[in-house]
Amino acid sequence: MLRFIIRRVLWLILVLFVVMLITFILMHLIPGGPWDREKALAPAVVKALNIRYGLDKPVYEQFFNYIGGIFHGDLGISYSYSNRTVTSILAHGVPKTATLGILAFILAQAIGIPFGMAAAMRQNSLADYTSVLFSTIFASIPGFVLGILLMIVFSVLLHWLPTSGWGSPLQLILPVICLAALPAAQASRIARASTLEVLRQDYVRTARSKGLSERLIQLRHIFRNSLIPVVTVAGPELANLITGSFIIENLFAIPGVGRIFVDGIGARDYPLIMGGILFYAFSIAIFNLVVDILYAMIDPRIRFD
Amino acid sequence: MNKRTFIFSLITIITVLTTILLPACKSSSSTTTSVSTTTSSSTTSIGSTTTSGSNTSSGSTTTSSSTQTTQTSTAINPKGPQEIILNLAGEVNTIDPNRASWTNERSVIMQCFDGLLAFDANLNLVPMVATEIPTVANGGISSDGLTYTLKINPKVTWSDGKRVTANDFVFSIKREFDPNNAAEYASFYFNIVGGEAYYNSASKSAAEQAALKAAIGVKAIDDNTLQIKLTSPLPTFIDLLALWPVYPLREDIITAHGDAWAQPDTNGNMPYYIGDGPFLLQQWVQQDHYTFVPNPNYWGKKPYLTKITYKEITDANVAIAAYRNNELDQSGVPSGTEKATMADPILSTQIVRYAQLVTFGLQFNCATAPFNNKILRQALSCAIDRNAYIDQVRGGVGHATLSWIPPGMPGYDASLGTDWAFNPAKAKDLLAQAGYPNGAGLPTLKFQYANTGVNPVMAQFVQAQLKTNLGINLTIEPMDSKAFSALVNNKQFTWALYGWGADYPDPDDWLPQIFGTGAGNNKTGYSSAAFDALSTQALKELDNTKRLQMWADAQKIVVQDAPMVFVFNRETFAVQKPWVKNLVTCGMDGQFPGDMFLRNVYIQFQ
Predict the structure, then answer these.
(1) Residue among A267, A280, A305 whose CB faces B20 most closely
(2) What is the per-residue pLDDT for A225?
(3) What is the pLDDT of residues B112-149, one digit of tens each?
(4) What is the pTM for the complete model shown?
(5) Same domain for A150 and A4
(6) A267–B180: do the CB atoms touch at under 8 Å?
């Protein structure tokens, strides 16, 4: 187990390096640089800006300086966000984005899994169809449509909730619902499908035939086994939610990291792009690792070496 | 096991790269059409807009530069909490006046600082910290136009109570050229003796830099007298003295705290952001909001508002929802909903709209075929119905134009460009004259634009116009904003959407740098010896009447040559709560209507 984790962590470092390298190359290949504007800056100004941010050095040198900086916890200075360091942008934004993401994740799983399983248990009943209908709706409605819809109903018409912003728990309600809609729909569909599959397994039939109570069969055999695909999807989903959603954060004016990173790409804010990718890749990799470990705990067939 | 780990790693890489890098190929989802770096300006008045400062009330140092209001009532009667919530619609890059360049940055800085001079609501220059506008007659400008001497009002204080002196301006102007600051507006001030040399001295030793800094032609004769020397006469230099890059700055604070002086501490407080303006920036919770309170030591007339909040709602649909939910006192409307707003029983009574000093055009790459053919350019100009664009696409918001300098500015001439106004029959004639009868032999035309805001609709409109009026096919090429700017700046475009907003209200800012041969913002490759000759003269002409006449003649040459199809001037269209009183909109507004004169605004609940 420990050897497995160590090996995966070493792989992780290599993965991150490759991700950084590819990102760095792609980022410099995209046409347009940070100082390209419709109203062109004077050549002297562009030169001064390049010197200020170290862009006058050869590209490979910039890359190795950047990688060197990471070891000192220095992710560079953003060109477009008030010259803050990328580490301070992360420190400032990640807790907010993560709060939102974790709440949305819990809500999504708490709604999605029970609904999906319940639907599978009563396959082809009215409850099943209703569950499928709603999960299809929430899986296909874009976040910005749902967000505006919720705002019109709860803010503009009913005046119950603020439209946007950060600070009070009330301001969290709409974005969390909006953010949870798609993962909840996905969780419910996956839970339903995997439960249906487990229901047809031999060991379930065996359990029934040896006379176990339905409740025990559901808890011990069906529930646990049908969770494996759900967990597989939930890991990256959590990583995705924690690293933020551009659309939701932009819509609800949330001071998180999700929209900064996307804006960073638009602004060719190189340190911000690199910092964002590093954070994102790291989160994805870590959650994949956690999922692997969870597998072993849920599924008795999986062992590490 | 190894294989599985490897596959996981690969999946991780691919997931990350596709999720993050794919949006780069698309455009940003900004809801507004960006014009350019700076002040998209506007004006409510059509009065005199001369900037010579000849007829301004010299000696006056009050801040109430204009009595013009958008309200009918003139009696000031504040009622209820004097607090206002506005929407800045996004995070600023910097609020260091020396380094700022964007409209939203100005919207913050203007509340906290007063400069030597300022613009009033009619875009006339008025003195602020200086006691009068320098002229040759009052001795403020030497007869050769090279030396400017300004008297500082001794009453002016910083928000911590200290006096503002000439040295504060000397420090600021020299710092504007500091190579380590890489200030984006520095090039506007390169006419100051020694400024450019110091700005370009990044690779020099500290001693050499210090010598260059000392040689800059700015000095404090005494606490109340500031002297600035220019390398060549520049009549519009007084306009530049009204802009944010040369607001006074505190040397002691900036030396002690470095860049942190203009940044919030960990709690979002702004302990070092000391200004001489009517408000203090008390809090800046980054990406969330800004809070201003009155400056307790303000030297001028005290503002009515006790609190101003700027929110950062970037989505226009959300901003209007927040406005309807009374979370904002003013909001723009999503583009395309102008007509619906005018039909709404409540919102229609709350509209604030006025022209901006912004012109949009379709610029040709005049250096290469087929657009090196002047008659073809004129034909295309005649083929586009600007009024239909304003009425059908923009809901009637905006002003169709046939020339470059917008209405509300010196140099605007409504009679210009009528030769190339919309006229399909003439367009066909000209197309034949250009060598392409009915489009025969014409290569496929391409049109490039940044794929943001309403730009795609505009491109489709142009495409449809050419098809209908000339039977020509146009290929439209949407691009990411930065990629588009790079394409245009490298002159690799063929025909592209172009917008320009005023940095200051003078033809100086509108003609030479865009149409002068080889000028920094001349992307069309347009070159006219007659224009260049007039331009060189006009930039130095000290007689304002002669100067403006030269610019008028120069613009005529440009319009006749049609290096661009001039299409429309943008208009601000916003809504505002009825209890917001005395909001004065003006030609140099920043991010939202009236942000230049928030010091005059008050709240009056019924």
Answers:
(1) A280
(2) 81
(3) 999 999 999 999 999 999 999 999 999 999 999 999 99
(4) 0.85
(5) no
(6) no
pLDDT at B452 over 90: no
Candidates A162, A255, A266; nearest CB to B286: A255
Note whether residue A89 is domain-resident: no
| Nearest CA distance, B133 vs chain A (angstrom) | 29
Task: Please indicate, yes or no, whether residues A101 and A67 belong to a single structural domain of this protein.
Answer: no
Same domain, A261 and A183: yes
Q: Is there a domain that residue A6 lies in?
A: yes
- Report the C-alpha gap between B367 and B222 in whole angstroms: 53
Decide if A7 touches B, using CB distance below 8 A: yes
Distance CA(B68)–CA(A188), nearest Å, equals 61
Record: contact B520-A267, CB cut-off 8 A: no
> pLDDT, tens digit, for every residue of B505-526?
999 999 999 999 999 899 999 9
Task: Give yes or no: residues A64 and A185 share one domain.
Answer: no
Distance CA B136, CA B437 (A): 58
> Between residues 11 and 40 of chain A, which touch chain B (CB distance below 8 Å)?
11-12, 14-15, 18-19, 22-23, 26, 30-34, 36-40
Report yes or no on A84 lying in a domain: no
Average pLDDT of chain B?
A: 87
CA distances (Å), origin A158, targets A161, A162, A219, B247 = 8, 10, 42, 46
Cβ of B286 within 8 Å of Cβ of A260? The answer is no
Q: Quick check: A270 contacting B, CB < 8 Å?
A: no
CB contact under 8 A, A281 and B263: no
Residue A300: pLDDT band (50, 70, 90) is: low
Indicate the pLDDT class of residue B420, thresholds 50, 70 and 90. Answer: very high
Task: Read off the pLDDT of each residue in B419-446 and give the average, rounded to a whole number.
Answer: 93
Q: Residue A86 in 3-state DSSP?
A: helix
List the single residue in B196, B483, B499 with the smallest CB-CB distance to A44. B196
Phi-psi region of A77 (alpha: psi -120 to 50; beta: other; left: phi over 0): beta
What are the tokens at A96? Answer: 């907010």
Residues 129-148 of chain A with CB under 8 A from chain B are 144, 147-148
- Domain check: are A69 and A156 in the same one? no
CA dist., res. B196 & res. A56, Å (int): 19
Q: How many C-beta atoms surround the C-beta of residue A157 within 10 A?
A: 11
Distance CA B532, CA B538 (A): 10
B202 contacts on A by Cβ (under 8 Å):
47-48, 51
Q: Are residues A50 and A153 in the same domain?
A: no
Residues A107, A240 within the same domain? yes
Q: What is the mean pLDDT of residues B323-336?
A: 93
CATH number at residue A192: 1.10.3720.10
> Contact A151/B318, CB-based, under 8 Å?
yes
Decide if A277 is inside a domain: no
In chain A, the number of structural domains is 3
CA distance A44 to chain B (A): 7
ipTM of the complex as predicted:
0.84
Q: Do A45 and B184 touch (CB under 8 A)?
A: yes
Domain that holds residue A25: 1-30
- Residue A284 and residue B16: Cβ atoms within 8 Å? yes
pLDDT of B21 reads: 45
Shortest Cα distance from B322 to chain A (angstroms)? 6
pLDDT digits over B257-266, tens only? Answer: 998 999 998 8
How many CB pairs lie under 8 A apart between chains A and B?
Answer: 226
Work out the percent of chain B whose per-residue pLDDT is above 70. Answer: 88
Tens-digit pLDDT profile for residues B88-98: 988 888 999 99
Strand, helix or coil for residue B125: strand
pLDDT at B358 over 90: yes
Strand order in the sheet with B218-222: B147-151, B225-229, B218-222
Minimal Cβ distance to B485: which of A37, A44, A265: A37
Note the residue count of chain B. 606
Do A118 and A255 lie in a common domain? yes
Cα–Cα dist A225/A295, whole Å = 10
- Are B399 and B569 within 8 A, CB to CB? yes
